[in-house]
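Rotation project, supervised by the postdoc (A.L.). Task for the rotation student: set up a whole-complex structure prediction and record inputs and outputs verbatim in this book. Inputs entered:
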Amino acid sequence: MDKLTLLRTLRNDVAEPSSEQLAPSLNKLERAFHTPDRPKKHTRAPRVRVLFAVAAGAVVLTMVAGNLHMSAQSAQAASILRDAAGASIQYSDVIPGPDEYLFVRTHASWPMDVGDGEMRLNEQTIDVYMPSDPTKDWVLDRDWGEGSPGVELIAAQNGVFYSDPWVEYDYASLPTDARELFEYFDSRYSGGSASRDENNFTRMVTLLRDGLAPAELRAGLYGALTLIPGVTSTANVENLDGVTGIAIGHTEPLRFGLRDEIIIDPATGLVIGERQISTRALFGFGINEVISLTAVETTVVDAAPQP
Amino acid sequence: MNKDSGVIERSLRDPAAFGELFHRYAAPLHRYAARRAGESLADDVTSETFLIAFERRTAFDLGRDDARPWLFGIATNLIHRHRIAEARTLKSLERAAAEPEYDNSRSVDEFVDAQREVKKMARRLRRMPSADRDCLLLFAWGDFTYEQIAQSLDIPIGTVRSRMNRARRILRTEPLSEEVHHGQTHFASDSAQ
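Outputs recorded:
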């Protein structure tokens, strides 16, 4: 046996860790996603920490104290999502005509890493122009706020503005039936997030977030969300632009009560934003403080800016 | 599957997207750290590696598709903080080779020879300059190419070649004597002996 082969055998009996063994490391990392100032040696205090208070007048229906109450809230969320699914179908899509674009503007306030372990909220606007023929050039007009590279205008076939397509899924390849969609995501769960439910919720919301999912798929996804245990609703939630809708969310007990929500216009079934709130006073956040907030607006336009 | 650079780019607007890198690489990175410095330390190294990577993700070169060299480079630097633990791990390997549990699949002579080779190898590895050991173990245990090692340790590829040549020479030729004198200062600590 040559030396290199022998070297490869040394401590070769050390196995890869189980997901249970990795769970504490993953939890620490996931907390860092939502923690503006990670405790570090020799670090300075955060420069600025801007947080939104929960919109006044919002009726928070989800802070519940018992299983019975939770069940009622889940049932209500299911009912709301069914209505939203119906509205999606009823209003169908905003469909661009020939030479027009489906235009989705995302106005976001997200925590940004500003170096040295410091985070602060940064506002971005992300304008995506999807042509009526999606194989033609898409356009991204993006203002990163304080983030690098500042402002950029990119045209790219199939929406590959960076290294991957803007829309990660091939919509046509997905089922549209709620149960089939739920099983599609649930069967592809690969151990991520703090729980299976949270991961299923997150992946479904990722698909809705871009505002480009067609009405039939959107309706199916709303139905699929109702199949995730513990999904509940909050009425009168304002998005970042002050437009009010119903928030459908999942509160993750294994993530210290962090709650992720998608905000829907119940009248049209369109996604109008996202919100993340802390439901417990932890990591410097108070109860119901908003950690991140967006507004999503979907319309048709007849032209896109050209780089 | 999305490239790692795409995942990191996405994590700039959606921090939680960074979790995908953990799911891709935490297990092999943990195993690499455990082979070098022991299982108990591997938990800390893995945890700290991903926290540091997350904090520094804005500095990641998005022109590089593969984040593995970057992550293993961070882990390697963290392992340096625990030289005694690494030395202790290699030392325990030497002891295990000196007191083997015989399996009857081979002749006694073959078995003894193999154990002697393992003991020599573990000692030479432990006494090797840490810079050479980093290159060698990223190559042998991490399955990295020379180019990936260069990225990982942020050194020119020519330096990787010279360190690998030196490391291989040490593995082949360094005597087993306890009295061998080492002038360099970056050996795995002998304090674990």
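Student's summary: The radius of gyration of chain B is 19 Å.
Supervisor addendum: Chain B has two domains: 1-81, 84-129+155-177+184-193.
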